[in-house]
């Protein structure tokens, strides 16, 4: 990285699971660099969803390095997720025809309920997981997936953890880390966010800022995706042999399946 920028630059790893992100600075200048970042970073930048993209360079080995403007700000806290501007930015993302067109052009296959069920069944077979609760979750997903057809498919971030939201000193909000994004039902993102961060009695108010009413159909779809995502995490930690995390996600899955009975009524 130093060779790419010049000797006057200092470059350090930015952490993260991929090890592909870096901080770089010289004097008062500071950049965020990433190797092989999302191919639609330019669209995200143009729409103000991520910090401004400054340049892109392709290396001789085929890797692509992107440089973004450094954001002087902070990550959102869990309590910040109740903010109206979080709802508005997520709505902007889900409403973006430019993002959706970009995904279609790169051949992104929509993540449908049937695809998710197939993926979960394959993961269960691969891990050899035999917990009866996992089979109960699959039964719920199979029995109700016909009822969770999305009225439209949009670009979903799929990892709306509060650590991926940043706000700068000018109160401009960004959603970063788009490596796992895909085309899916907007209820995927909405369910993960609302279940994790927003008290149930505030869902309607939060969705008002998002621009969509809290209907019975949306409730069912959100719950379905949260159950699927929770089972996915539980199986992931079974595969990793992490008993503590497996137990935590299994307990949460049990609670969700108990809720399924009341939601379906």
Characterize the structure shown.
- The structure is a single chain.
- Helix 5 packs antiparallel against helix 6.
- The chain starts with a helix and ends with a helix.
- A hairpin with a 7-residue loop joins strand 1 and strand 2.
- A five-stranded antiparallel beta sheet has the order 1-2-3-5-4. A three-stranded antiparallel beta sheet has the order 6-8-9, covered by helices on one side. Strands 7-10 form a two-stranded antiparallel ribbon.
- It contains ten helices and ten strands.
- Helices cover 48% and strands 17% of the residues.
- The longest helix has 25 residues, at 216-240.
- It is globular.
- It has helices at 2-5, 41-46, 84-95, 97-105, 113-127, 132-144, 186-197, 203-210, 216-240, 243-264; strands at 10-13, 21-26, 29-35, 53-58, 64-69, 73-75, 154-156, 165-168, 173-175, 182-184.
- It has two domains: 2-70, Phosphorylase Kinase, domain 1, CATH 3.30.200.20; 75-264, Aminoglycoside 3'-phosphotransferase, Chain: A, domain 2 (Alpha-Beta Complex).
- The relative contact order is 0.13.
- It has 265 residues and is an alpha+beta fold.
- Residues 12-211 form the Aminoglycoside phosphotransferase domain.
- This is Phosphotransferase.
- It comes from Salibacterium salarium.
- Keywords: Transferase.
- GO terms for molecular function: transferase activity.
Within CATH, the superfamily of the largest domain carries the name Aminoglycoside phosphotransferase (APH), C-terminal lobe
**What's the helix-strand series?**
HEEEHEEEHHHHEEEEHHHH
Provide the helix percentage.
Answer: 40-55%
CATH architecture of the largest domain: Alpha-Beta Complex
Number-wise, the strands total 10
Number of domains: 2
Count up the helices.
Answer: 10
Largest β-sheet summary:
5 strands, antiparallel
CATH names the topology of the largest domain as Aminoglycoside 3'-phosphotransferase, Chain: A, domain 2
Structural category is alpha+beta
Tell me, rounded to a whole number, the average pLDDT: 90
Q: Which consecutive residue ranges, at least 5 long each, have pLDDT under 50?
A: none
Domain Aminoglycoside phosphotransferase: 12-211
Protein name: Phosphotransferase
Pfam families: APH
GO molecular function: transferase activity
């Amino acid at each position: 990285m130093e060779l790419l920028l010049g000797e006057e630059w200092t470059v350090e790893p930015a952490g993260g699971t991929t090890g592909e992100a870096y901080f770089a600075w010289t004097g008062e200048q500071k950049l965020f660099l990433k190797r092989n970042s999302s191919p639609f970073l330019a669209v995200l930048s143009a729409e103000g969803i991520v910090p401004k993209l400054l340049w892109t360079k392709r290396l001789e080995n085929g890797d692509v390095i992107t440089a973004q403007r450094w954001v002087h700000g902070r990550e959102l806290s869990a309590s910040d997720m109740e903010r109206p501007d979080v709802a508005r930015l997520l709505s902007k993302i889900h409403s973006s025809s430019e993002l959706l067109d970009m995904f279609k052009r790169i051949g992104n296959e929509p993540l449908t309920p049937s695809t998710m069920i197939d993926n979960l069944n394959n993961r269960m077979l691969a891990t050899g997981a035999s917990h009866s609760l996992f089979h109960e979750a699959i039964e719920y997903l199979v029995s109700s997936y016909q009822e969770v057809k999305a009225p439209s498919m949009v670009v979903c971030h799929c990892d709306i953890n509060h650590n991926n939201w940043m706000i700068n000193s000018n109160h401009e909000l960004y959603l970063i880390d788009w490596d796992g994004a895909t085309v899916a039902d907007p209820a995927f993102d909405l369910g993960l966010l609302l279940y994790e961060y927003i008290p149930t009695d505030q869902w309607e108010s939060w969705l008002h800022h998002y621009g969509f009413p809290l209907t019975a159909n949306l409730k069912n779809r959100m719950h379905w995706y949260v159950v699927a995502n929770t089972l996915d995490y539980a199986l992931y930690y079974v595969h990793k042999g992490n008993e503590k995390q497996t137990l935590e996600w299994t307990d949460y899955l049990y609670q969700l399946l108990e809720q399924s009975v009341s939601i379906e009524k």
